[in-house]
Amino acid sequence: xxxxxxxxxxxxxxxxxxxxxxxxxxxxxxxxxxxxxxxxxxxxxxxxxxxxxxxxxxxxxxxxxxxxxxxxxxxxxxxxxxxxxxxxxxxxxxxxxxxxxxxxxxxxxxxxxxxxxxxxxxxxxxxxxxxx
Length: 132
Hints:
Elements: H1 4-7, H2 10-29, H3 36-44, H4 50-75, H5 78-90, H6 96-131
């Protein structure tokens, strides 16, 4: 049985993370945040194993969303809005971190699914090429 570390091709893994990070950070600026799944699909396209492709895209998307949130919280009044949404959800003020965790969880789910889909697309294309 092959170990998990040997199974990951480190060049392609980091390439998938960097591509997912870059595209998702650029797409986060747009008002349609759902397009972030496209960056995850592109990031997962470079890996051969679907779980590893999903993991690479998950890391890329979550880290870019975390960076985007940190920049907006430090430079603007986003924390006030996040804290108010947390107060609406839980009932008390001071629970903005719960909203931030939920945002990152949604980004992680989209990243993993997109990376999984991207790797599956790569496998389909490679299989079609082998049949020819």
